[in-house]
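Open question from group meeting: does this chain pack into something compact, or does most of it stay loose? Before anyone orders reagents, we agreed to write out a predicted structure and look at it together. Recording both the input and the output here so the notebook holds the full record.
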Amino acid sequence: MQRRNRRAASYFSQTIFVCLILAFAAGAQQITISGVVRDETGAAVSGAQVTLASASSNQTTYTDDEGRFSFTAPSGGSGTVRVNASSFAPAEKTWVAGSAPTPLAFILRGTAQGERVVVSATRTELKLSEIPGSAIELSPEDISANAGLTLDDVLRQVPGFSLFRRSSSRVANPTTQGVSLRGLGASGPSRALVLEDGVPLVDPFGGWVYWDQVPRAELSSIEVFRGGESNLYGSDALGGVIQMLTRVPSGPAFSIDTSYGTENTPDLSAWGGNKISRWDFESGVDMSRTDGYTLVTPSQRGLVDTDANSKHAAVDAGLGYQISNNGRAFLRGTFFDEARNNGTPFQKNSTGMSTGTAGINANVGSKDFFLARVSGLVEGYDQTFSSIRADRNHETPTNIQHVPSQELGGALQWNHELRKHTLIGGVDVQEVMGASDEQLFSAISGLHFANNIAGGRQRSTGVFGQDIFRVNDKWTVIAGARWDDWSNFSGNTVRITISNGTAVGQFFSNRSETSFSPRLSLMRNLGSNAAVWVSGYRAFRAPTLNELYRSFRQGSALTENNPGLRAERLTGAETGGRINGFNHKLESRATAFWADIVNPVTNVTLSSTQTLTTRQRQNLGRIRSFGGELDGILHVSNTIQLSAGYQFTHAYVENSTQLLVGKLVPQVPKHQLTWEARYWNPTRIMVSVEGRYASSQFDDDLNTFLLGRYYVMNLFAGRQFRGGLVGYAAIENVLNDRYAVAIASPIQNLGPPILARIGVRYDFPAGR
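Structure tokens returned:
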């Protein structure tokens, strides 16, 4: 009996052991999760990113040429499978432990560009297809596919976008880096407002833009709206709005892009962040340097001609707190530093800048939204100038400048949703103070003969309102207006003669102006795939402290300040339409525009000799700009895309006391054309070829110095490997076209030679 009991116990223990072994083996078994991805027509979608998420890990792969994918996962797990593909809306399915490993079928719905949501044109979320005007959004893929190293070179693929001169910010003086849109750029300050997440990036003292202060790795998209927008944004939005939107982490995320190129050009851009509970935090860095190239043509170079080069570093960090499902409070700080050699041993400039922003976005109920911002800036800008002999073998210092400035501003905005209306109202304020501290030298002897101090303060307040009225499915009316008041005060200049210590000063009278900027747009939908619109508006730009109080010299050209400048005022109108065809594969938008600008600020020539051209910033009288824009995108397939854009602009002086009537506005080409052909299949190859053409333009108000037409091509090619790692090569100016960018009689400056770089990019999660 005892023997049978022992035998039974032995059998029982063996059975338990076998069961445990089987259970362990079963737990260690793997299952295959597979599937296929197709579009609405049934065609396979290759190169789509597929992510399997479970409690223990995440896996990422890409579909093959037949749209198929597969994973190996523990049989006891569960989670989701998510598919992302360019030009398609994401799709997601779940898998559960114990379910049969049957193939998953995904049908992706195309997402046309017109369905993308933008905020810059109306200060609220609106689909591109609902905007009555010339609006463009650059997606992360658009930015990645562009071979340009700097953001301004990326934006040059938008027809009508240019800086004051043709030079890239890689080597150009910062004072020439203001944006021109639609021919509204007769001098260096920006005629378009540039924003980062709603905060102005336009230098408050000088009106130019430091394009390297935004790390490229942290960008989520860039929005461009062409046309006067002072009704919402006030001064600086004379020709439109450019907004850079940055990433907000929803979980662990990291991106790094590093490259090395010709002209000894290393570059690094990185961003990382995370969200824990209600808190999110992120930080970005952008660093680059280049030995640059010599600007002057080889036949005209002398001993003083050296390479124009630059280096910069930008670091930012942000902290956010989710106060509700759609509400967030945040703090953000940025430090930016750059230094440049401007093409001779003595001519240099540098900038140091610190900025801080605090804000809150909050929904109150289901129909109201509030936004608040407070921002501040402290900046120091330094510049040296010289006089160069005709043989270009010797230079003499003429001016050493130090320009300190500070800015403090804030904004409040309220949105209210009704059944057919979206009401928007708000107020913003800004105060800027700055000065130009100068050491003046004789252009002949190089003797330090005087010091000059000039500066002042500027305060502005704006109140705006807008109604987006959706009358029915066919008609939309957008009506808005803004009232601005700004004043210049504490303006003064003091000159101290070194030889005897004599000080001569002048205090400028306080001045103030107001502006009323309305805008009315009417849009008619012609079915779901077409629409037409018409708009009329007024806009303005107040002169900057730089234009009022700071003089500068570039080569043999001296440009003097003018404390009596008045605001530029624009009256404009436009009409256009959009068409989507071939099941949203073709998207096109056309706009015709007209603008009349009273009191435009331009650099007017006062005298000209072989050694010195003297100009002064003046209100001209009236200029007129009219033309048209055409933009189109053809999605040949989910991996092939063709796009092109064209702008015709005729900008000329309509009325002037300076005998300039009929002259063309300088720095404005009549024709601009861009195109791109892109094949984007990350697991096989990513290729983008771009072309950009601009017709001739004049470099001066007298239409004496003609800059000839040019055409450049860029190339980007790369491939994604496992884990989100991308290797790539980028070439700018493939044809090595050395076109003229400036003329200071008789010296001609050239644009860049062929520029090439190779790099690696890593994203986590892969394929952001």
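Observations to bring back to the group:
The two ends are 72 Å apart (CA to CA).
The first strand starts at residue 30 and ends at 39.
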